[in-house]
Structure formats: structure tokens, C-alpha cells
Amino acid sequence: MILFTDRIGTPEVGLQGAGVRDVECVYGGRHAMAEYSSTVEWNRSGATFTDNRYSRGHRWLFDGGVEVPASSSPHVVPPPLSIAAAVDPEEAFVASLSSCHMLWFLSIAASRGFVVDSYRDVAVGVLGKDESGNAAITAVTLRPEASFSGERLPRVEELAAMHEEAHERCFIARSVRTEAQCCPVSDARALHP
Description:
Blueprint: E1 3-6, E2 11-13, E3 23-27, E4 30-31, E5 39-41, E6 58-61, E7 67-70, H1 89-111, E8 115-121, E9 124-129, E10 135-142, E11 144-149, H2 156-169, H3 171-175, E12 179-182
Parallel strand pairs: 10-12
Antiparallel strand pairs: 1-2, 1-3, 3-4, 5-6, 6-7, 8-11, 9-10
């Protein structure tokens, strides 16, 4: 349920638009700190549709003008009804966890005086059955590898602590039920014993 409240604070359940004006959105009973949006567009393009043989190809549009070709996963809907070269929601979910972790890690490393030259994560999500027996991304494993330079390089325990803090601070990881774990790949050249 989406709950809206007017400026006086009277709750009103409904959808924004259609004459609803000056409405401040409230999620989960709390005022939002920030709001993020995307636009998803799909067109039937002449397919019959009711035979369930329509293209799952669509577009994700983001602020700033970025457009991402998207589709269902070819593991779920075989090509040609899905587009293997497009991003699917499962991949985007894994990438969002990985990206959020990286952004926090970079911020933490910089605040501790470490210079990160590069960062790469080959993250993997697993589609399985949840506790109710429904299909879900049940686990995501991050495999981040950061390269450092400069006079001050992190020790193994400092690297682990930065990844642990990044995981704890990641908004996305805290927002999902999926088990998310971080298994950093060490750059032996940059780590001091």
C-alpha cells in the first residue's frame, strides 16, 4: 500500500494524480529521505500478446538521459522472446548490490587515507527457492578486488573492516531479504602483513 498525507498530516490512501494536489508521499509510515525514480517502457509492436509469445524487450530510462535496453532473463524466458544482450531485472538486482557496496567502500577508503586506483567486482546472484518455495534471488556473492597505491596501503584486517563497514552501510543490502555476502579478492601487492 502507498500512503499519502496532505500538508496537515491527514493520511489518505490513493494514487497521486487525478486531482490529488499538494500531496507529500509517506512510505512505511516514515517521510522519505530521498526519492529515486525510473521509467520502464514496453510496446507490443504488433504481437498477438494473448498467445504469450511477445517480446520481453523493453527500456529503462533514468534521470540524466541514460537509457538501458532491458529484457526478461533468457534463463526464465528463452530467446527470441527475451533479448540476451539486454540487462534483465535479476542482473540489475545483483549489480545494484555490487555498486552500492563499491560506492561505500570507496568513500570509506578515502576517509581512512587509502588511495584506491581501481575496483572490480564479479558479483553472482543465485536464483533459487525461498522459505515459501517461491523463486527468488536467494543469495548474492560479491567478489570485490581493489588495487591501492600511495605510501599508506591497507593491511588485510583493514581491508576486511572496510568491506564489512561498506556492507553494513549499503542501503540496498539493508533493504533486501537476500543473503548478501562479501568475499574480497586480495591484491597481494597492496596488502601489508
